[in-house]
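Worked example 2:
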Amino acid sequence: MGGVARGGEDRDITHVAEGRMTDSDEQLPGVRAASPFRRVAPRVSSAPTARIVLASSSPRRRELLVRAGIRFVVVEPSPDPPLPPGMCADLGCQLIARQKAVEIAERVEPGSFVVAADTVVVGPRGPLGKPGTPEAARRMLTELRGRRHTVLTGVCVLRTGTDVVALAVSRSLVKMRDFSDQDLITYVASGEPLDKAGAYAVQGAGGDLVEAVSGRVDTVVGLDVALTLRLLAEAGYPDPLPRATDVPLTPPRRERRPLAPMRAAQRV
């Protein structure tokens, strides 16, 4: 974001980036039509308000915070950097989350609380990024098929104008179904896995490829909300914060339909 809106603006901000501001009335799945984002209004000196800034372009991370009842604005960082070579995945995802938070902290007002996250899927042969192509997606999913893997989400909360930084990582274990070649071909052809770490989205059609999740499902989606709230409190966020529950679990579906919103796998 080229800067945070100030003054008499009274609009629901869903996206501010590269010095331009766009309003969106797109309703997130499962969320009331009323905007969950903070309205920007003239500040009253006697009642200052702490601002939460989500440094992410992920609609799923945004939806997770909305579901938790948190008000925030969104500022998109630069594209995700690759995992540093030779660095273990749990440290690497925290480092990348911190890099995102530092980038956005330079573009927002002092006293803001910047939240950033990075998710890494660690397969049997090591970390898996975003495939980008159908061929790479097929290779990744073939590697994961019928096996267990780990999903790590690093979270950083940075308070601008200070040296306060809170970092942590959340991890979950995912067991994939031994899905058929036809299931694989159909899913890759949908295009969903191309920009997803590990080539699947547990909250979408990719949830049908998942047998079970041990740990928090929202970690696999891309943001451990309970951990995020804890880090906000550690960083000194002054306002009351809600209690966070995990993504609601649903039983496996007999008929698989693609792209169901916030599809969650059965817990182990």
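Residues 89 and 123 are 11 Å apart (CA to CA). Confidence is low (pLDDT under 50) at residues 1-48, 254-264.
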